[in-house]
Design a protein that fits this description.
By secondary structure, the chain is mainly β. It has one helix and 16 strands. It has one helix at about 140-145; strands at about 1-5, 10, 15-20, 30, 40-45, 60-70, 70-80, 85-90, 95-105, 105-110, 120-125, 130, 150-160, 165-170, 170-175, 180-185. Strand 1 (about 1-5) and strand 2 form a beta hairpin. The longest helix is centred in the last third of the chain and has 6 residues, at about 140-145. It is globular, with a radius of gyration of 17 Å.
Length: about 200
């Protein structure tokens, strides 16, 4: 997993470590999130708006949600110091977190777990408590339930427009702010990639 944020590169490793470089990749530093086998970094997402209960030094810190195969963490990157620090773990996952994001006032985590494939979890209090979001406009595909394949597998957002998208076997869903999920289109295949651009005009 590689991501560029605020003129810095971030790279997740297979041992639960997160590397960053502010020197165009010529020098790297590391922070260890969770050590041990099976703790690969699976996703990371920059958060552009404040999260409740996670204090920031305004204009000086960037928040990254980073997931491994066992946990989801909040990390902070200092623009002024060029240093990355682990703030805290916000979720011990039931399955493997594959996508994270923040939209409206909620943190979202998509997990893949045996017999609970494509589970969408949501927290409205900065990760202090979590609930399964299955009744808010989301519908699992019967084939996914029978064969334990991912109903919901990818989450992405365009923070400028306060809008999120969720890919699944049943199509693409959209959520505006704290509203309900809306099914945009049914695509009878599992979607393997999902990307959105700037939505500041509300298109």
């Amino acid at each position: 997993v590689l991501k560029a944020v605020q003129r810095a590169f971030f790279c997740g490793s297979v041992d639960g470590g997160l590397f960053w470089s502010g020197a165009s990749g010529t020098a790297w530093s590391q922070v260890l999130l969770s050590a041990g086998n099976g703790t690969d970094v699976t996703s990371m997402e920059e958060i552009s708006s404040p999260i409740p209960s996670i204090p920031l030094v305004k204009e000086q810190e960037v928040v990254l949600l980073v997931s491994t195969t066992t946990h989801v963490y909040v990390t902070k990157f200092g623009r002024d110091t060029g240093a990355l620090m682990l703030y805290r773990s916000i979720l011990t996952a039931d399955g493997v977190p594959t996508s994270t994001g923040y939209i409206g006032s909620s943190i979202f985590v998509v997990e893949q777990a045996h017999k609970r494939a494509g589970l969408v979890k949501v927290s409205a209090d900065g990760g202090n408590s979590w609930s399964d979001q299955g009744a808010d406009g989301l519908h699992r595909h019967m084939q996914d339930i029978v064969y334990d394949t991912p109903s919901f597998n990818l989450f992405t957002s365009c923070p400028q427009g306060n809008r999120a998208f969720l890919a699944s076997f049943t199509g693409v869903y959209r959520r505006d702010g704290d509203g309900a999920w809306v099914n945009l289109e049914t695509i009878a295949q599992i979607i393997t990639s999902l990307s959105v651009g700037d939505d500041s005009d509300g298109l």
